[in-house]
Automatic annotation (TrEMBL):
Molecular function GO terms recorded: catechol 1,2-dioxygenase activity; ferric iron binding
Region: Disordered, residue numbers: 1-37
Pfam families the record matches: Dioxygenase_C, Dioxygenase_N
Protein name, per record: Catechol 1,2-dioxygenase
Family to which this protein belongs: Belongs to the intradiol ring-cleavage dioxygenase family.
Ranges of residues in domain Intradiol ring-cleavage dioxygenases: 137-165
Stretches with biased composition (Polar residues): 1-10
Keyword Iron listed: yes
UniProt xrefs under InterPro entries: 1_2-CTD_multi_dom, Catechol_dOase_N, Cchol_dOase_actb, Intradiol_dOase_C, Intradiol_dOase_core, Intradiol_RC_Dioxygenase
Cofactor: Fe(3+)
GO biological process, one term: catechol-containing compound metabolic process
Source organism: Pseudonocardia sediminis
The entry's keywords: Dioxygenase, Iron, Metal-binding, Oxidoreductase
């Protein structure tokens, strides 16, 4: 991918992701954690670190380099980015143990609440010259019994055809490729958008530097992000990927699942079209 001077820097998107995370504290709710549980979990985390040091003969220079890197991670505002790429998938897997219906995956750092709302048939806000293959994404929201969930909300956000998210990349208009669609009386929706490109973790910040120091690649496969909600039902936070796309089997964020891969095909009007239904369990 080419970098232009309007591209988001790691410092820019990292700091915005920190701000967005702080603003979302209420949405995530406070963790009510007893001293016993704090002790158990924190001890286990520290033991994991201690074991890595022993098993791999970590030296003083390496320890000091790690300290400097962690300081940079905080100062660059990249904790949300780093944790969502390398840790969130495991928390999501634990949550998924008790979830029925459509499978979830990580939220990532780029959700923004309060986006424009639309009826059941909508085109996501986009620039007049928005790049990318037009895509019609349609489906139905139902409960576990197959009953349509009238008025369900499909809250969707995605990168553009260059892999950038509005609200985090300064060159993109506010709300670009974001919206909240309300399903009709039969739980149906139809969203017109463009196919996103794969996403690259910003390479100029501490997370990117760690990835390249380890000889890994910084890419996530192209994806749509979704939160699907309906009164009285448990919200699903998930992502949908594209069959045959790059990085599907080696997502840097380890967040792909077989059930979440779309197969768009040209529809009658020549545009790419794909249907995907969501199933929500009662809350
Ligand atoms: C990150 C970015 C994403 O677009 C995503 O879906 C998950 C994680 C990140 O950079 O942390
Ligand atoms: Fe993403």
């Amino acid at each position: 991918m080419t970098t232009t001077d309007t591209s988001p820097t790691a410092a820019g998107s990292g700091a915005n992701a920190s701000e967005a995370f702080r603003a979302s504290a209420e949405r995530h709710g406070a963790a009510d954690t007893s001293p016993e549980r704090v002790s158990t979990v924190v001890s286990a985390v520290l033991e994991g670190v201690h074991k890595a040091i022993r098993d791999h003969d970590v030296t003083y220079p390496e320890f000091q380099a790690a300290k400097a890197w962690l300081m940079e991670l905080g100062e660059g505002g990249e904790w949300p980015l780093f944790l969502d790429v390398f840790v969130e998938h495991e928390v999501e897997a634990v949550a998924a143990r008790s979830q029925n219906g459509t499978v979830g995956t990580i939220e990532g750092p780029y959700y923004l609440p309060g986006q424009p709302t639309f009826g059941s048939v909508a085109t996501l806000p986009q620039r007049d010259d928005e790049k990318g293959t037009p895509l019609v994404f349609a489906g139905q929201v139902r409960d576990l019994d197959g009953t349509p969930l009238a008025g369900a909300e499909v809250d969707i956000w995605q990168a553009d055809a260059d892999g950038y998210y509005s609200g985090f990349a300064p060159h993109l208009p506010e709300h670009n490729l974001r919206g909240v669609i309300t399903a009709d009386d039969e739980g149906r929706f139809e969203i017109t958008t463009v196919q996103p490109a794969p996403y690259q973790v910003p390479t100029d910040g501490p997370t990117g530097k760690m990835i390249s120091a380890a000889g890994w690649h910084p890419w996530r496969p192209a994806h749509l992000h979704l939160m699907v909600r309906a009164d009285g039902h448990r919200q699903v936070t998930t992502q949908l990927y594209f069959r045959g796309g790059d990085y599907l089997s080696d997502d840097v964020a380890s967040a792909t699942k077989d059930d979440l891969v779309l197969d768009p095909a040209p529809g009658d009007d020549g545009r790419l079209r794909v249907d995907y239904d969501f199933v929500l369990e009662a809350a």
